[in-house]
Amino acid sequence: MKITIVGTGYVGLVTGACFAEVGIDVTCIDIDEQKIEGLKKGVIPIYEPGLEDMVHRNVEKGRLHFSNNLAGTLDGVDVIFSAVGTPPDEDGSADLKYVLDVAREVGKNMTDYILIVTKSTVPVGTAAKVKHAISEELDKRGVTIPFDVASNPEFLKEGAAIEDFLKPDRIVVGVESEKAESIMNRLYKPFTLNGHPIIIMDVPSAEMTKYAANAMLATKISFMNDIANLCELMGANVELVRKGIGSDSRIGKKFIYPGIGYGGSCFPKDVKALIKAADQNGYSLRVLKAVEEVNASQKSVLFEKLQRYFDGQLKGKKIALWGLSFKPQTDDMREAPSLVIIEKLLEAGAEVVAYDPVAMEEAQRRIGDKITYAKDQYETLIDADALLLVTEWREFRFPNFTVMKKLMRRPLIFDGRNIYEAEEVHRQGFEYFGIGLGNPVKKEGI
Predict the structure, then answer these.
(1) Which of 108, 124, 144, 207 has the fewest CB atoms within 10 Å, counting from its CB?
(2) pLDDT band at 441 (very low <50, low <70, confident <90, very high)
(3) What's the CA angle centered on 206, arms 204 and 211, to 5 degrees?
(4) Of 18, 28, 231, 266, which residue is the catalytic one?
(5) Which residues of 173-202 are buried (b: 16+ CB within 10 A; e: fewer)?
(6) Which of 174, 173, 167 is nearest to 195 (CA)?
(7) Is the CB of residue 351 less than 8 Å from the CB of residue 319?
(8) Section 404-414 average pLDDT
(9) Which domains can be identified in the chain, with CATH numbers?
(10) How confident is the model at residue 442 (pLDDT cuts 50, 70, 90)?
(11) Do the beta carbons of residue 419 and residue 221 sit within 8 Å?
(12) What is the pLDDT of residues 187-214, one digit of tens each?
């Protein structure tokens, strides 16, 4: 089988590498010539555990190729995956420019039947627009060539994308014909041999499934953060509450960990896009609008705790940040809480020193020299007035508190992910504040 994947971003590159891993001939396309030349030389543009080795292995085996010429790769191709970006437009809706550009390029150059699959996260109705764009180009050429359009949304978690693709919870496929269904079943057979289900549905339902999934997960996160904030005011401990509700099988244990808000490339963008799509259809997604509002305010919680502790006097204070990426196992800083925290700290006149295991280069690209970058987590603590734990990287879980206390000007920790046990940290001689632990921050000295 021979497939082409357009777009070598996070979704496209992971998808291409994983299909090549099971023996499929894959060509990944991107208009960015520099990125393609880099990939040909083994330079991986994103950080994802296991991806670099998989790409190198399949390039060496001759199963994975890279090109910036889509037209030149269509001969003999069975399936084209469109995995280009769908960034949020100014009004929050998904921008389909790149998706439709791919459709037009296919229509201009296809010579035989092809199944075109939208892999990007796209609003309901996008497949119909793709179909129309291809048909228009075929009409301009005065030719009749059969084709199908399908939807195959991705459900990859950054930091665990390889495992998610190779051993999926489910594979969702939206099709309009038996031929398209047969092709997709054959393509995904290597991934369903161990019982992982492939769920066939109509195209609009498949397009909606991706948005609904991300919206539900975002809702669980914001709900738990709202409860955590209330716990703090009422003297309850959200960690115990979380265990109490998580044991209910109807609720489950996942995505109910309190923190400082969600970020990344999916949840913020998809929640906005779904809200906008509903508004355009005359319906208000009131729950999701609240989810977005809670998430936006939650990103400021650590800063507000810190400001309250120091009675609003942060000018000249040195603040250490552990973690910059929006979550562990990625260098992705899109919509990361760290960006909000850093901006507010700088506006308040604080000095910021930060460390992240993999996102330092990305942080420098986004923030520049406004903050100081440490070579390791302990360097951030030299003469620091407080530590803010922002991203729960594994290497932060068991720090040397004795060393920390010697380095810091003030033994003070604000834990945005509740990864430490309050009693243990207190025994080590630190003041400690988490999220929703029933210990509201009071002003310094009170």
Answers:
(1) 144
(2) low
(3) 95
(4) 266
(5) bbbbeeebbebbeebbeebeeeeeebebee
(6) 167
(7) yes
(8) 98
(9) 2-201 (3.40.50.720), 211-297 (3.40.50.720), 299-433 (3.40.50.720)
(10) low
(11) no
(12) 999 998 877 789 999 999 999 999 999 9
Average pLDDT (299-327) is: 97
User: Residue 443 above 60 pLDDT?
Assistant: no
Quote the DSSP letter at residue 124: T
Burial class of residue 221 (count of CB atoms within 10 Å of its CB; 0-12, 13-18, 19+): buried
Residues 395 and 358: beta-carbon distance below 8 Å: no
| Distance, CA of 168 to CA of 350 (rounded, Å) | 45
Instruction: For residue 28, indicate whether it is catalytic.
Output: no
Q: Are strands 412-415 and 431-433 parallel, antiparallel or unpaired?
A: parallel
Cα 392 from Cα 419, distance rounded (Å): 7
| Chain-centre distance for alpha carbon 180 | 29
For residues 285 and 89, give the distance between their C-alpha atoms in angstroms, rounded to a whole number: 19
pLDDT digits (tens, 9 = 90+) for 224-250: 999 999 999 999 999 999 999 999 999
Q: Is residue 144 a contact partner of residue 137, using CB atoms and an 8 Å limit?
A: no
Provide mean pLDDT across the span 96-111: 95
